[in-house]
């Protein structure tokens, strides 16, 4: 029997990326839907063969505990709504996959980690890049020393937000998003700086560009930050909601310098390393990469680790650390001075 997920929130990402990705899963299937819009849920259920008895609303959601078809929920709601529904899912005895950012405050993220421990159920964050074959090969190449010790990382994640689109509307409402472009896009760079360097920053500085656009009255548009590391490395990141889509990482190593562009796309990410006369491009067919897309691999990961006992590649603690770093970036920007993030080894929390 494959592992059954109930998707909570039937917005853009759920409908366009995650739900179709079950078709390529080896161990997971779409088993249920949770939505405030019964008609939409029924339409999707009919299209994907989900029994109507497995459709829930937010009112009767807690009854999911009596449904053995559903092993886990996957929360794909606006950011501030993640923590409460995750707690309810753990109370119902389900595993939880939750979209990034896992929560809008450190307290909420910690509450989710605690609820997972109490329930003895997995909490996994939807960090799909950890399942992207190009990203995985990039990390392997860096760890194997191919580009030399990485010393400077740059991460740029931007997109022109449209408030015509409902999925753009909650992103600029602080109560739902928790923040602007950093919460939504910059988080990819925050997370990537850590996996590319295999190190956590000890200090952050940050600047938010003032915006006169009324859309950005509650949340930041353009933000830039620098992480300083014990090893002497630096990572610069920026994110924006008002410039053309960019998803680019730079990795300056002691031997080679590398660029991922796009770095965090849904498909077709690339890695190119150069230095002197050497140029290496990481792309099919030069390197064999698994055909499986990152979304299906991410969905399969939870049943795989439950069966094998292997450690999760995207734990709640990983998500909590990013939420803590994001809050430190906001604090550094507000205080206009460096903020310490030297919290000791988060992996031992
Ligand atoms: P969306 O607006 O398209 O979908 C959100 C869904 O939540 C909608 O169906 C909406 O009806 C529902 N909803 C329930 N209560 C709501 C409320 N009070 N206000 C507004 N909507 C409410 O957004 P999305 O782009 O699908 O993003 C959802 C989550 O997925 C976010 O956490 C986002 O960061 C994440 N996401 C992740 C990726 C990724 O690549 N990993 C990509 C896109 C979005």
Structural features, described:
- The chain is an alpha/beta fold and 349 residues long.
- The protein has two domains: 123 residues, 3-Layer(aba) Sandwich (Rossmann fold); 189 residues, Dihydrodipicolinate Reductase, domain 2 (2-Layer Sandwich), CATH 3.30.360.
- The chain is 33% helix and 22% strand.
- It contains ten helices and 15 strands.
- It has a nine-stranded mixed β-sheet.
- It is globular.
- It starts with a strand and ends in a 9-residue tail after the last strand.
- The model has no long low-confidence stretch (mean pLDDT 94).
- It binds nicotinamide-adenine-dinucleotide.
- Nicotinamide-adenine-dinucleotide binds next to α1 and α6.
Short overview:
The protein is of the alpha/beta class. The protein has helices at 12-21, 38-47, 82-91, 106-119, 133-143, 166-169, 174-177, 181-197, 294-308, 316-335; strands at residues 3-8, 28-34, 55-56, 72-75, 95-98, 123-125, 150-158, 203-208, 223-228, 234-240, 246-253, 257-260, 271-275, 278-282, 339-340. The longest helix is centred in the C-terminal third of the chain and has 20 residues, at 316-335.
């Amino acid at each position: 029997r494959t592992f059954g997920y109930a998707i909570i929130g039937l917005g853009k990402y759920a409908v366009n990326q995650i739900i179709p990705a079950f078709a390529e899963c080896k161990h997971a299937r779409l088993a249920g839907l949770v939505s405030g819009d019964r008609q939409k849920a029924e339409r999707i259920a009919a299209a994907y063969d989900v029994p109507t008895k497995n459709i829930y609303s937010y009112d009767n959601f807690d009854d999911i505990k009596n449904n053995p078809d559903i092993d886990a929920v996957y929360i794909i709601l606006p950011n501030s709504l993640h923590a409460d529904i995750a707690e309810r899912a753990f109370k119902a005895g389900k595993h939880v996959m939750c979209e990034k950012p896992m929560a809008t405050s450190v307290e909420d993220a910690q509450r989710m980690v605690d609820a997972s421990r109490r329930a003895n159920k997995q909490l996994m964050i939807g960090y799909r890049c950890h399942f992207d074959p190009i990203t995985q090969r990039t990390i392997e190449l860096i760890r194997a020393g191919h580009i030399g010790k990485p010393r400077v990382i740059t991460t740029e994640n931007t997109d022109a937000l449209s408030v015509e689109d409902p999925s753009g509307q909650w992103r600029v409402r602080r109560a739902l998003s928790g923040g602007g472009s950093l919460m939504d896009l910059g988080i990819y760079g925050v997370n990537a700086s850590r996996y590319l360097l295999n190190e956590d920053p000890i200090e952050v500085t940050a600047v938010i560009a003032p915006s006169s656009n009324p859309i950005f009255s509650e949340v930041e548009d353009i933000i830039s930050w620098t992480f300083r590391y014990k090893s002497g490395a630096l990572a610069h990141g920026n994110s924006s909601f008002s410039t053309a889509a960019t998803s680019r990482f730079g990795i300056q190593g002691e031997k080679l310098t590398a660029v991922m562009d796009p770095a965090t796309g849904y498909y077709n990410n690339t890695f190119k390393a150069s230095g002197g006369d050497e140029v290496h491009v990481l792309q099919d067919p030069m390197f064999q990469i698994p055909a499986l897309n990152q979304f299906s691999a991410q969905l399969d990961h939870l049943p795989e680790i439950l069966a094998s006992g292997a450690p999760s590649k995207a734990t709640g603690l990983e998500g909590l650390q990013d939420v803590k770093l994001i809050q430190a970036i906001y604090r550094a920007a507000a205080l206009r001075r460096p903020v310490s993030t030297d919290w000791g080894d988060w992996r031992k929390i």
